[in-house]
Specification:
CATH superfamily of the largest domain: Exo-inulinase, domain 1
Low-confidence stretches: none
Oligomer: single chain
Bound molecules: magnesium ion
Helix content: under 10%
CATH architecture of the largest domain: Sandwich
């Protein structure tokens, strides 16, 4: 008798909960599906699409490389050449990376292949942005930068590829001599205490407003030879590559980042 009573009560409660859910789902009240908090923070956009928003950290605003250092010698400032409003790779001085370390972020970066570019394949305006510099040299996760306007190379190594991991969805390269811009969303990988991978990195890449990678999930850090591989790391610098080709060096300007 007691059991039956309990059964009846629990059934009644389930029916009531179901009725409540159904009421929510079938409600004609638009308020039933409104969410009012937390409110997204107010951010003021730049006047032009490429201008830094109000809460961005400016990594290069046109005057100096104070936010960067040499990868080969972290105690030294970046030795690339600064001109009025832009800077250029100084070949042989090595990669440069940000003093500040980041985890998840939105990055804006503009670059230009010189109009007198020479060379072919990978040896034509090659640089790159490493979304997390995890050590010296080319350690990290590279989004390729090179002249891929009218220049054949392996497609998983052309501009917009996560180098040797994925083919970009489009070739949106502009002609040498024209400024181009990357907008990148980076979700850093997470690691367990024992160094094993907890969650992989993911990246979304726009070049000149065209999507080249759509939340691509990386299988590891960039490797020139062999398969990508994860090695545990924490917050990391953003790094730019001195590829060392004899072709004329490429330039950068207007670099800013918003931490997420
Ligand atoms: Mg490169």
């Amino acid at each position: 008798m007691k059991k039956e009573l309990l059964f009846l009560i629990s059934t009644a409660l389930s029916v009531s909960a179901f009725a409540q859910d159904t009421k929510m789902e079938n409600s004609n009240d638009p308020k039933a599906t409104e969410i009012w908090s937390p409110e997204p923070k107010v951010v003021t956009s730049g006047k032009l699409p490429q201008d830094a928003p109000s809460d961005a950290i400016v990594l290069f605003g046109g005057r100096n490389l104070d936010a960067w250092h040499s990868v080969n010698n972290p105690a030294q400032p970046a030795k690339w050449t600064v001109d009025d409003g832009f800077f250029t790779v100084k070949k042989g001085t090595g990669n440069i990376e940000t003093n500040k370390k980041f985890t998840d972020y939105q990055l804006h970066l503009e670059w230009k292949i010189p109009s007198n570019i020479t060379g072919e394949g990978q040896a034509r305006g090659n640089s790159g942005v490493f979304l997390a510099s995890t050590g010296p040299g080319d350690d990290g996760y590279e989004i390729q930068i090179m002249d891929a306007y009218n220049n054949k190379t392996y497609v998983n190594g052309q501009t917009g590829s996560v180098y040797k991991q994925v083919i970009p969805l489009a070739n949106a390269n502009k002609k040498p001599g024209e400024w181009q811009y990357y907008d990148i969303l980076w979700t850093a990988p997470r690691f367990n205490d024992d160094g094993s991978l907890k969650s992989p990195a993911a990246v979304t890449v726009f070049l000149n407003g065209v999507v080249l990678e759509n939340h691509f999930v990386l299988t590891g850090a960039t490797r020139y030879i062999g398969k990508p591989e994860y090695k545990a790391h924490g917050p990391s610098s953003i790094k730019l590559q001195d590829h060392g080709d004899p072709s004329p060096a490429i330039s950068f300007r207007n670099i800013w980042v918003r931490e997420l």
